[in-house]
TrEMBL record, chain A:
Chief localisation class: membrane
Entry-linked InterPro entries: ABC_transp_permease (IPR001851), LivM-like (IPR043428)
Superkingdom of the organism of origin: Bacteria
Name of the protein in question: Inner-membrane translocator
Localization of this protein: Cell membrane
Species for this entry: Thauera phenylacetica B4P
Membrane topology type: Multi-pass membrane protein
Record keywords, A-Z: Cell membrane, Membrane, Transmembrane, Transmembrane helix
GO-annotated cellular components: plasma membrane
UniProtKB/TrEMBL annotation, chain B:
Protein family membership: Belongs to the leucine-binding protein family.
One Pfam family linked to the record: Peripla_BP_6
InterPro entries: BCAA_transport, Leu-bd, Peripla_BP_I
Signal peptide positions (record): 1-28
Record keywords, A-Z: Receptor, Signal
Protein name from the UniProt record: Extracellular ligand-binding receptor
Highest taxon in the source lineage: Bacteria
Automatic annotation (TrEMBL), chain C:
Stated name of the protein: Inner-membrane translocator
GO biological process terms held by the UniProt record: amino acid transport
GO molecular function annotations of the record: transmembrane transporter activity
Membrane topology: Multi-pass membrane protein
Keywords carried by this UniProt record: Amino-acid transport, Cell membrane, Membrane, Transmembrane, Transmembrane helix, Transport
Main location group: membrane
GO CC annotation terms, alphabetical: plasma membrane
Lineage of origin: Bacteria, Pseudomonadati, Pseudomonadota, Betaproteobacteria, Rhodocyclales
Family: Belongs to the binding-protein-dependent transport system permease family. LivHM subfamily.
UniProtKB/TrEMBL annotation, chain D:
The organism of origin for this protein: Thauera phenylacetica B4P
A GO CC term attached to the entry: plasma membrane
Domain ABC transporter: 11-252
Classification via PANTHER family: ABC TRANSPORTER ATP-BINDING PROTEIN, CONSERVED COMPONENT OF ABC TRANSPORTER FOR NATURAL AMINO ACIDS-RELATED
Lineage, top ranks: Bacteria, Pseudomonadati, Pseudomonadota, Betaproteobacteria, Rhodocyclales
Name of the featured protein: ABC transporter
Length: 321, 391, 288, 258
């Protein structure tokens, strides 16, 4: 109804972000690029947490699997084709999510949180303990994938500005894609499952299949973010799959307010900004970070997305008096 | 009246702006920017602090300067988290525009940093992380190391045990790169000397439930056991090994990380252990004595190998800057200066190999009380083979 | 593997499993009764270990440290429940998880500020500082056996509490249905406070007892956290018996995994978990 | 599916038994539901009516006994699969999607008949067939005036009607309705009874209900349960006349209107 009203701030935000490369400061181009990657990651998790009601505490696994996939699939001394490694890595993450989903979706609620955590930890150890991806030291991706198609090169990922806009384009596409999916019959079923899964079953929906679909899709998009991360930084490590990363992305979703795609993006920005600022102010930044997390949970149940509403309500309350 | 006030204000502003610009320019020309990317929180926080202390101690001794210029520090807590390593390194390199990147302890983080250094052609000095690859296949003109390679102390131990006539050895380590590289280095020297590894055991990092391996060792009865562990895991292994009664029947050896910084935590279980490392207590050179006294005075702490590595990182950079006439921008000259430098380290003088790793003496040390006392030099001027380095 | 080794490895498995049970029992209790996934459980373990270190240094005796440490841990748990968790019962599980995630950061940093980042050892009490000769070269430390005994005593005590007391009645009837429990005329807020304090105390006790053999070091909590989660997952929601069975299974899987399939030892435990989940999605001993 | 034969047996449950641990909640319950018939399950609280309806809908697997739908054994089917063959149910506690509009609640139910999870780019709100069907069912359930309301704000009675609309839009031939009149005022009750009568024309309805007036107004067949056992089954007149039923259940005045 007020889609147009909320569209304008979004476009403004997009325009501002799109101007970042104009600064010419490669650090900021890269750091904002990374935040955009995390925003994609947060949106993919929001599909599960905010829209389907599946609180996955192991989402970093799919991020990491795709990141490792690019590093492993790329030859050491030359660039791989983007059009091969991108679908392959995303596909591997989707496959992993599908297989793990078969296990974890048999459980519900609080138990689901723990089981997803445990499976992600299993994936972590596979990369940490086997020579598959360089073990605990991680692995370099020395050559960023090449976008050339039969000799024609539409863009060049080794160029930091191209890379930035590539990520931004992917972000916009993922946003539009998810927004569209949530409007589709499939998306409506997911929202129904979040609201009342039992009712969905009694209406004749085999909800397991829908949840598996959502889990796989979220895994694939999480993998897409992981792919971009690996290409952006050229280095992958088992820590990308650790439960801390899963916790961080959940925090982004919470900060932005669950069930709100634009909120997930805002949450990613807020989280990364907080981390940067605290780390710059003090050696004891973890204390501040922990304090903020506790405060947000206690005082801002709707996340940042809930803040404007709260202010509005407070103001209206004031007027009424 | 009004007009002149405006004029005055305008002049004032102009003056201030010029002054600011002048200061800025002076800063850029005069100061050398050092980026310290080390762990200040988490498991390795104590090591990060020791390295920082060591580095700053040399700078202080040098009149607060490096290459004749004031030093400006930029510090980042790397949390020993490789997932944030690239970003953190970029922060120092691209945002703060440091002249040299000093870090770090964790090998995974150091590898990520080394990639940034290589890609951005920034000078980097590794003050601890021992991954062979850093001065092996991933070596780079820009990456130096003031510490050691995982291969070095272990290879020296392999040589020493073979020389002692020990034939059968069992090994235990964590299943991660540093551990596996250490065992590989040991194995290379030990088998060359006619020894044989009867059992190679690994457990996932950071699992510290060693009891199953102690049982295996007791049943295999090798002549000796070689292990790589560090930090709390090392303390636990040594204590468990002693508690299982194995210490008296099957001697335990390992690189010095087994006992460095852990003797207090072992509570006497480590007494008499033999380990190899590029530093020790009870060295007889004057440099070490001065270093220790000063360190203890300044920081109210006993220095350790990490402090030495931090100190030497500063020394190496000083040597480079000197060769470049104090200008950090002349990277070629700085690199050449460092490559050809002879570093007068508290550990004993060392030079740098072609792959930029210290060519250094490795000591056999024995635990006595709370010290790792030097017994002898087991490998004189040991040079890492730098396999895979094309430089 | 010869028979003697097999027996000793079995002993190792049991001993390790019991220690894991001690760590996981508090987690499963809080999890089952309050419905809270407590990521800070590892931090309470770490806090226990540091308490053991600080109090042993101060008093000269680990036994005294434990005697002093348990009431401190109980009080600390009750305080946290009062100050933080009691405000969140009506919220989503997710927010409770994140609260505990924030607490980890706070506790780790405070630990660093207060006690520093060094590795410390804690002396084994003199009367337990002995070992029993098992084979000609190997002996078994008495302290480890003593811990096993404590764990068994604790398991029996928990059994008694759960089967014979009012609190236990709740736990059995239990879960997070506040309405039903209140209808039984029980002050649920008090019950939650007691359970949370108990959970913290169990974790801290585990840390205190493990301190002499594992030593005391930064981030030690995160090492035990994940394995505790796996145990709770295998054992089933909130089931103390499930946790015991699962801890022993993990103890055996880990010990024999290391010896028999060293290449896979890191993931053996997770494979066990996956198999259990295929067989019983809600864990071995689902409550109720 | 659309052929409606009078007195066709839709649902047949034979000797259903359900145990919870040592407790027998239902023992040897047999129920038959024919098309164009309203069959009421009657019994005091705790008689096992909900257990019975849960077994019929697939929410609970029976410990023993078989269930047939149009002659096919459906005992092993899950709730979702039973919905797909044509058995729909409503719940004792209102069970809707409160944040959705009335239309979206019913549209989502209608969508379950033609699931196309792969068509990610179709807008659900543009699937005309589902919308049309949803609108028709809302009308049929008597909620035509509330199409665009958020369902959470509807009155209790309207929410019960909404549930029925949802079941209707799944093409259910058998409606299992768990206390559709519970908590309704007399006016709402009366209009619901009208709705039920209308629905009976083409379907079979199995009802759990306490409201005696309503029960005798609409029932074609009544099964009385006590303590998990089947006491008596027959047309309303037979039940009214039954001594056993009067003794066990109807005799106490206060349980008439629970």
């Amino acid at each position: 109804m007020n889609a147009n009203a909320s569209l304008i701030p979004k476009l403004v935000a997009l325009a501002i972000v799109a101007c970042v490369p104009l600064s010419g400061e490669s650090f900021y181009i890269e750091i904002v690029g990374k935040v955009l990657v995390m925003a994609i990651f947060a949106m993919s998790l929001d599909l599960l947490v905010g829209f389907t009601g599946l609180v996955s505490f192991g989402h970093a696994a799919y991020f990491g699997i795709a990141a490792y996939a690019v590093a492993i699939l790329s030859p050491e001394y030359e660039a791989a084709s983007l059009w091969y490694v991108l679908p392959a890595s995303v596909g591997l993450s989707a496959l992993a999510a599908f297989v793990i989903g078969l296990f974890v979706l048999r459980t519900k609620g609080i138990y689901f949180i723990m089981v997803t955590l445990a499976f992600a930890q299993m994936a972590y150890f596979i990369f940490h303990d086997t020579p598959l991806g360089g073990g605990s030291d991680g692995k370099y991706l020395n050559n960023k994938p090449s976008a050339s198609i039969f000799g024609w090169e539409p863009f060049d990922l080794t160029n930091e500005v191209h890379m930035f806009y590539f990520i931004l384009a992917v972000l916009v596409l993922v946003y539009l894609f998810l927004a569209r999916v949530l409007q589709s019959p499939f998306g409506r079923v997911l929202v129904g499952i979040k609201s009342n899964e039992h009712r969905m079953q009694s209406l004749g929906y085999l909800t397991f299949r829908y949840k598996l679909g959502a889990f796989t899709l979220a895994g694939a998009l999480g993998g897409l973010a992981g792919f971009l991360y690996a290409v952006l930084f050229g280095f992958v490590t088992p820590e990308l799959l650790s439960w801390h990363e899963s916790g961080n992305v959940l925090l982004m979703v919470i900060l932005g307010g669950m069930g709100n795609l634009a909120g997930a993006i805002a949450g990613a920005f807020a989280f990364e900004a907080m981390r940067e600022i605290f780390a710059d102010i003090t050696k004891y930044w973890q204390l501040l970070m922990g304090g903020v997390i506790v405060a947000v949970v206690l005082f801002l149940p709707g996340g940042l997305a809930g803040v404007p509403g709260r202010i509005k309500r407070a103001l209206q309350g004031g007027e009424a008096k | 009246m009004m007009k002149s006030t405006f004029k005055l204000a305008g002049n004032l502003a102009l003056t201030l702006a010029l002054a600011a610009a002048g200061i800025g320019a002076a800063n850029a020309a005069d100061k050398v920017k050092v980026g310290l990317m080390l762990p200040y929180t988490g498991t390795y926080a104590a090591l990060g602090t020791a390295i920082t202390n060591g580095f700053k101690q040399f700078v202080d001794e040098n009149g607060g300067k490096l290459g004749g210029r004031e030093v400006e520090y930029f510090t980042v807590d790397d949390e020993s988290n490789p997932a944030k390593a690239t970003e953190n390194a970029k922060k120092l390199v691209s945002r703060d525009k440091v002249d040299v990147l000093v870090g770090t302890v964790h090998s995974g983080v150091a590898l990520a940093m080394a990639k940034v250094a290589r890609d951005t052609k920034t000078l980097m000095i590794v003050p601890n992380a021992g991954a062979n690859d850093l001065t092996g296949p991933l070596c780079s003109p820009y990456v130096f190391r003031s510490s050691f390679s995982a291969w070095q102390p272990s290879y020296a131990m392999g040589e020493a045990l073979a020389k002692k006539g020990i034939k059968n050895v069992a090994t235990v380590t964590w299943k991660y790169s540093f551990g596996e590289e250490s065992v590989a280095g040991f194995k290379e020297a030990f088998e060359k000397g006619g020894g044989k590894l009867v059992k190679e055991m690994t457990l996932p990092f950071p699992n510290v439930e060693f009891q199953p391996f102690l049982t295996e060792i007791a049943s295999a009865k090798p002549d000796a056991v070689f292990v790589f562990f560090a930090g709390a895991g090392a303390a636990k292994f040594v204590a468990d090994y002693a508690a299982a009664g194995l210490k008296n029947s099957i001697p335990l050896y390992g690189p010095g990380f087994l006992t460095d910084g852990n003797l207090g935590a072992m509570g006497g279980a480590g007494e008499g252990l033999l380990t190899t490392l590029h530093y020790a207590d009870g060295l007889t050179n004057a440099k070490d004595a001065a270093f220790r006294t000063k360190y203890a005075q300044t920081y109210k702490l006993q220095p350790d190998v990490y402090a030495v590595q931090g100190y030497d990182a500063a020394q190496m950079y000083e040597a480079g800057l000197k060769a470049a006439g104090g200008d950090p921008e002349k990277k070629e000259d700085v690199i050449k200066g460092m490559e050809s430098a002879k570093i007068d380290s508290p550990r004993g003088a060392f030079t740098l190999s072609k792959a930029h790793n210290p060519v250094q003496d490795i000591y056999m040390r024995q635990v006595k009380g709370d010290q790792n006392v030097m017994l002898e030099v087991v490998s004189k001027s040991l040079e890492d083979p730098a396999r895979g380095c094309k430089m | 593997m010869d028979f003697a080794s097999f027996l000793i490895q079995t002993l190792n498995s049991l001993q390790y499993g019991l220690l894991l049970f001690l760590v996981a029992s508090g987690l499963t209790l809080v999890f089952g009764i309050m419905g809270i996934i407590n990521l800070a459980h590892g931090s309470f373990y770490m806090i226990g270990a540091y308490l053991a270190f600080v109090l042993t240094s101060a008093t000269g005796s680990l036994v005294l440290a434990v005697v002093l440490g348990i009431p401190l841990a109980l009080a600390f748990g009750a305080f946290l429940e009062w100050a933080l968790f009691s405000h969140l019962y009506k919220r989503d599980h997710l927010e409770q998880v994140l609260l505990t995630y924030g607490l980890i950061l706070i506790f780790e940093q405070l630990r660093s500020l207060l006690v520093g980042d060094d590795v410390h050892g804690v002396a084994i009490p003199a009367f337990l500082d002995a070992s029993i000769q098992l084979t000609e070269v190997m002996s078994y430390p008495v302290y480890r056996l003593a811990i096993s005994v404590v764990c068994i005593v604790l398991a029996v005590a928990l059994y008694y509490v759960i089967q014979r007391t009012r609190l236990g009645m709740m736990i059995r009837a239990g879960n997070d249905d506040r309405g039903m429990v209140e209808a039984l005329g029980i002050n649920i807020n008090m019950i939650y406070r007691v359970v949370f304090a108990l959970g913290v105390a169990l974790a801290a006790l585990a840390g205190m007892l493990a301190a002499p053999i594992s030593s005391v070091f930064p981030n030690m909590g995160s090492h035990v956290l994940i394995i505790s989660f796996v145990i709770v997952v295998i054992g089933g929601i909130g089931s103390v018996w499930g946790a015991l069975v699962a801890a022993l299974i993990v103890g055996f899987a880990d010990t024999f995994g290391k010896v028999l399939v060293p290449e896979l030892s890191g993931i053996v435990v997770y494979v066990v978990m996956a198999v259990v989940l295929l067989w019983r999605p809600e864990g071995i001993l689902k409550k109720g | 599916m659309s052929t409606t034969t009078k007195n066709e047996v839709l649902l047949q449950a034979d000797r259903l038994t359900r145990r919870f641990g040592g407790l027998v909640a239902n023992q040897d319950i047999s129920v038959t539901l024919e098309r164009q018939m309203i069959h009421v399950l009657l019994g005091p609280n705790g008689a096992g009516k909900s257990t019975c309806i849960n077994m019929l809908s697939g929410d609970l697997p029976p410990s023993e006994g078989r269930i047939h739908y149009l002659g096919k054994d459906i005992t092993a089917l899950t709730a979702a699969q039973r919905s797909q063959v044509g058995i729909g149910r409503s719940y004792q506690r209102t069970n809707i999607f409160p944040q959705f509009t009335v239309l979206e609640n019913v549209r989502l139910a209608a969508q379950s008949r033609r699931q196309q999870p792969w068509s990610l780019f179709t807008k659900a709100m543009e699937q005309k067939w589902a919308l049309d069907k949803a609108r028709a069912c809302i009308e049929e359930a008597g909620l035509g005036k509330r199409v665009d309301w958020v369902s959470g704000v509807l009155s209790h009675g309207e929410q019960r009607q909404l549930e029925i609309a949802m079941v209707l839009s799944t093409d259910a031939q058998v409606l299992l309705l768990d206390e559709p009149l519970a908590g309704m005022g007399s006016e709402e009750s009366a209009s619901m009874v009208e709705v039920l009568k209308r629905l009976r024309q083409t379907r079979g309805i199995l009802l759990v209900e306490h409201d005696m007036d309503a029960v005798f107004a609409v029932a074609d067949m009544i099964t009385v349960m006590v303590n998990g056992q089947l006491l008596e089954c027959g047309p309303p007149a037979q039940i009214k006349a039954s001594v056993a039923v009067q003794q066990a259940y109807l005799g106490t005045e206060d349980s008439f209107h629970v």
